Every structure is written in C-alpha cells, then in structure tokens.
Amino acid sequence: MAFIKKTDDTIEKLRILANDSKYDLACACATRADEHRRRSASNKWIYPVITPGGGRTYLFKTLLSNKCVNDCIYCPLRAVSNTPRCSLTPEALAKAFLSYVALGKVSGLFLSSAVDAGPDASMERINRTALLLRRQQFRGYIHLKIIPGASEAAIRQSLALASAVSLNIEAPGENNFKRLCTSKDYTRDVLRPIRLISSLTAPGTGLQRVKHTTQFVVGAAQETDREIIDYSWKLYKEMQLDRVYFSAYQRVGGLEAQEDSRPGNGDLLTREHRLYQVDFLIRKYGFKAQEIPLDAHGNLSLKVDPKEAWARKHPEFFPVNVNTADKFRLLRVPGVGQVLADRIIQFRQNTKIRAMRDIGPANKLLQKAGNYIVF
Ligand code: SF4
Questions:
Q1: Which among 75, 91, 69 is positioned nearest to 22, based on CA atoms?
Q2: pTM of the entire structure?
Q3: Helix and strand counts by DSSP (H, E) for the chain
Q4: Per CATH, the architecture of 3-294 is what?
Q5: 304 alpha carbon to ligand 1 midpoint, in Å?
Q6: Does ligand 1 have an atom closer than 6 angstroms to the CB of 113?
Q7: Is the pLDDT of residue 24 over 80?
Q8: Confidence band, pLDDT 50/70/90 cuts, at residue 97
Q9: For the chain, which residues make up each domain, given as ranges?
Q10: So what's the architecture of 314-374 in CATH?
Q11: Exposure check for the chain: N or C terminus, fewer CB within 10 A?
Q12: Is the pLDDT of residue 30 over 50?
C-alpha cells in the first residue's frame, strides 16, 4: 500500500513532486532532443530549456499532486505503486514559484498533476494555480497539463490562462492504448479533448497563441515505430499540433519482471532519440512519414540515423552537386543541416565551391556529407 506523505514542508513536497514530473517531457519550449532530461545542477525542479529563438531560459517544473486513481502500467505513480504520496495547494505552489521568479531563477512554469479525484478536480487545482499567478501579474510562460477526460469548461479555462497546453496521447491507437491503461477511454478521454484543443486554438479563434503539444510513451505497449510515426504525422497535419514528444518507457518496477525478452532501457532511449530525429526530418526537412525507412517489423534502425538510412536506400538521388542543388536537395544529404545548407547557398553566390574545406572545418558531419556530394 502506498505511503501517504504527511508534511507541510513545501520544499520537501516539491522534492518529491518535481522528481515525479521528470517522465513528462512535453514542454513546448524545448527544441533539442538532448535537453529533455537535463535539470539545473543547483535545483531539482528547475529545467534549462532552449527557446524557439535560440535563447536559454529556465522552467519550474513539477506536479501539484502525485496521488493517482488510474492504472497506467508504465507509470511509477499508478494507484497500486508503493511510492511516497503528497500534494501541494495551488496557493503554496504559486507562492513558491513566484519566489523563484523574484530571484530571477526561472521565467516560466510547467505544471502537471496525477489524478486523485477525477479529471476536473485535478484540472480545477491546475487552473487555480495559473489563475493565482496571472492575478499576481505574472505574464510569463505557463504550460498546463490537460488531464485526460477533462471537461470542455476546464479546457477552455486552461486555454485562457496558459501559454501552452499538452495532453499526453501515450499510445498510437486504441488497441495499443488498451494495453497501457484500462481506467481511461482512448476516444472519450484522450482524442476528444485533443481535437477540442486543436479547434479552440485554430487560427482566427483568438487562442492561436496557445501552443498545443502531446507525448507518446515509447516501448510500453507493443507499438511499432511505424505506428508512432504515422500517428505523429496525423497529429501535425490533421490536428495542427505544435510539437509531438517521445518519452522512452523506463522499467523501474511493474512490467519488467515478465518481459525479459523486450528491449532494455538503453535501447528504448536510443529508440526515443531516433523518433526525435524522424520528427525533425518531418518538421524541418520536408520528409513525409511514408519516406522514413523502417525494417520488416516497422521499426527504425537503432544503429543508423534515419536520414542516412534514407540516403543508403536512395543511391539514385546522389551525388548531390553542392554548387547547383536547391535547398531541398542539400537538406537530404546526411551531415548537412539547416545551418550548413544556408552557408553553402551563401558561399556559392560569390564563388564556386571546389573542396570540402570551402564549406567548413573538417568534422564528422562534413566527413559524412563528403560521401554524398560532388563539386
Ligand atoms: S493518470 Fe498520469 S499519473 Fe496517473 S497512473 Fe496514469 S500516467 Fe501516471
């Protein structure tokens, strides 16, 4: 039976609640795959993030409560877990957060919660915290988690207060979702509110400023990468989500005893990384979901990054002439990213590129690109 932590010490509760928030990576500010798990060295609930403009800032990230009635099998906080439980009041959290803002240690808040008394009871506390902050004239970034099954009224209130919201989809499709959780209904509790948020934040609604993101847990259901990639594509194209995040399922208790033959945590972290690379190829490099190379089981290679895997499957596309290729073709070259493609285009306006050293100092990426280009 779970031990209910009884303490009024906000810092002690924050230590527990912030630690339990580390599985949620769906922060709309984060832009690089490698930053999702990093925390500030000095404080457990402060997370450094890179803003879309390239600057660095810090977010205060925590749960309001880790008491949960649900049974998501991948989650260390599910009802049957024997883990220390506690909650903070909206007032206590708002006060703690504002004290960090006043010290200049954070510029925004990422707030989530487990579900201890129904979706709208949790939403009420999340929204109340945001309301207290806005009433205290806090105008900065607030990311609110939308609890699966939240009512339209609760979602509307979150959107009025937040800079960004996210509801974690967790699995691609109902069949996969059912393997993870029986206490939530995929269509009613997950897809319906995601669709609602998409329509309420569409261009012209007045709420398009609110970023909308979601997250898959990777490797806990028997889902394939193909399913996650296809679902992500739909979320971007049909529901206009701003970002899709991926969180490798980490076996810390529960599923692991019965599943020795399944990939270990290290492989799942590599899989998570590969999915972020695919996400980048789709959002920034013009790849379509159907172009991503997969093995016979519908999974990405753990050994070769997806852009290089695509290049190896398409010898007819190469070599690319760096003096004449347009940006679309340059971006298909393994090792060539947005910055290097722009540098090549700028350099060749004045003079012909004759050798690798003309486009940058020798490094691994340029070495890789050298196998696919001519001058
Ligand atoms: S509802 Fe959230 S906190 Fe509760 S078990 Fe599921 S994932 Fe964990």
A1: 75
A2: 0.89
A3: 12, 9
A4: Alpha-Beta Barrel (3.20)
A5: 33
A6: no
A7: no
A8: very high
A9: 3-294, 314-374
A10: Orthogonal Bundle (1.10)
A11: N
A12: no
